[in-house]
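Lecture 7 notes: from sequence to structure.

We start with a single chain of 358 residues. Read the sequence below before looking at the structure.
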Amino acid sequence: MRALSIVHVVFSSRIAGGEHHCIDLANAQAALGHTVHVIGPAGSAVRHALDPRVSFHGLHLPLLRGARVKRLAARLGADIVHGHLGPACKATAAATSSARVGTLHVGYKTHHHARLDALVCVNSAQVDRLKDFGGLHRVIYNWAPERSSGTCASKAPSGSLRMEFGIPATAPVIGCVGRLHAAKGMHTLIQAFQRHAPADAHLVLIGEGPQRAELEALRGEDKRIHLLGFRWNVDELLGEMDLYVSSSREEQFPLAILEAMRARLPIVATATLGAREMLDPAQSAIVPVDDAPAMGQAIAAALEERHRNARQPVVYDMDRYDRSTAVRATLALYQDVIARQGATVQGLAGLSVEDARG
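Now the structure, written as tokens:
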């Protein structure tokens, strides 16, 4: 495969699942010798998580982003422009001099994705929702992101979670990672925890977002519930937990579940598209969305089982979620899009010649 010039576009200032995926993909592609750029807001935290071989281009104002992405991609000689999340995919569609790809981190929307040349579906259910899409598509599963030891990771608090919050060594710890937003369902998780978890259990919420004040109010005086804010050392924190809970109302392919699987934790998850595709019901508890009693009962049962089997790790089949396989599949999709565009151009040129002869 020849070296490509690849431009990723992600318009988030914070880092959550889709941004993590973009960062890790860009870093992996640069490590393989491709020329990789990322376009995002000038003050984005994404910039500091990128490999030094990846160039970041900051946009200072959120105006005319499609036209600016188009000009910048042309100046950089981009073979591929790859959008992540809806607004970035919409801007990517304007880069008509390059092959345009989008990843469906959230889901297909005609006004964001229909004009792209190819789409990466992160679960198989998304394929059935591409009825008006005429480009290529592939199902390429995400992977648990690599946690670099670079600038951002070095700023993360390190050491014992239990020591930081005074949690006894024998107390069960339940964790959840995600943005503090209503879509993540953490208010339901707090309710489920308070009503059904053992009295000595602790709940750790890792992430930041607009719902923090609401969640703090819901927590009240319960000292067992800890809102850690954003942390980079997620793998280290998961290593001290007894149970992971994904409480989201909607998830296409949650990276946090993959991280919990990599940590070999038992998992309770709401029945989102992503969780249903990723988890085997024989190994994990899948409960209805927004159902605090069902979630709470599943948490209590999982902790009881965890105690009964002496914290035996859960071994998940992670072969489908291999980073190098997914990176290669993404690059292969790029090549297919480029080849398809080349064939179209040649076909149009042939038609022009025939027209001229006629």
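The chain has two domains: 5-143+322-357, 159-308. Keep this in mind for problem set 3.
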